[in-house]
């Protein structure tokens, strides 16, 4: 759940972007996000994905049911977009039209 909704009950298009990012990360990793998990023992999905993104080890968290039969560039693109969508600040999240452009591009984007 996004921070603006959890803390203030605010709903906006950027909340939908956040939810889209969660969905993308869950699909690519084959894992569900769990906010109730203690980070010291088992990080939530965002922390886990971010850790692997920074370390350059994304292949380690790709959905194992895919059996390594996928283009790594597409996995990286989806993880990149998912991480942009779950930024804490709504203003840092891309618009849906920007996401469409990113999905059809081969470029890696930053916040």
UniProtKB/TrEMBL annotation:
Read off the lineage from the record.
Eukaryota, Viridiplantae, Streptophyta, Embryophyta, Tracheophyta
Q: Where do the Serine-threonine/tyrosine-protein kinase catalytic domain residues begin and end? A: 1-102
Q: Which Gene3D superfamilies match?
A: Transferase(Phosphotransferase) domain 1 (1.10.510.10)
Q: Name one GO molecular function term.
A: ATP binding
Q: Which UniProt keywords apply?
A: ATP-binding, Kinase, Nucleotide-binding, Serine/threonine-protein kinase, Transferase
Entry protein name:
Serine-threonine/tyrosine-protein kinase catalytic domain-containing protein
Q: Name one Pfam family in it.
A: PK_Tyr_Ser-Thr
UniProt keyword annotation of Phosphoprotein present:
no
Native species: Sorghum bicolor
């Amino acid at each position: 759940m996004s921070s603006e909704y959890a803390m203030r009950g605010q709903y906006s298009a950027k909340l939908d972007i956040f939810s889209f990012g969660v969905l993308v990360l869950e699909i690519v990793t084959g894992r569900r996000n769990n906010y109730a998990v203690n980070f010291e023992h088992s990080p939530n999905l965002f922390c886990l994905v971010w850790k692997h993104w920074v370390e350059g080890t994304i292949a380690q968290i790709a959905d194992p049911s895919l059996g390594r039969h996928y283009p790594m560039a597409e996995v990286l693109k989806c993880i990149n977009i998912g991480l942009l969508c779950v930024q804490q600040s709504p203003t840092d999240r891309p618009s849906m039209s920007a996401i469409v452009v990113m999905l059809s591009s081969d470029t890696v984007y930053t916040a």
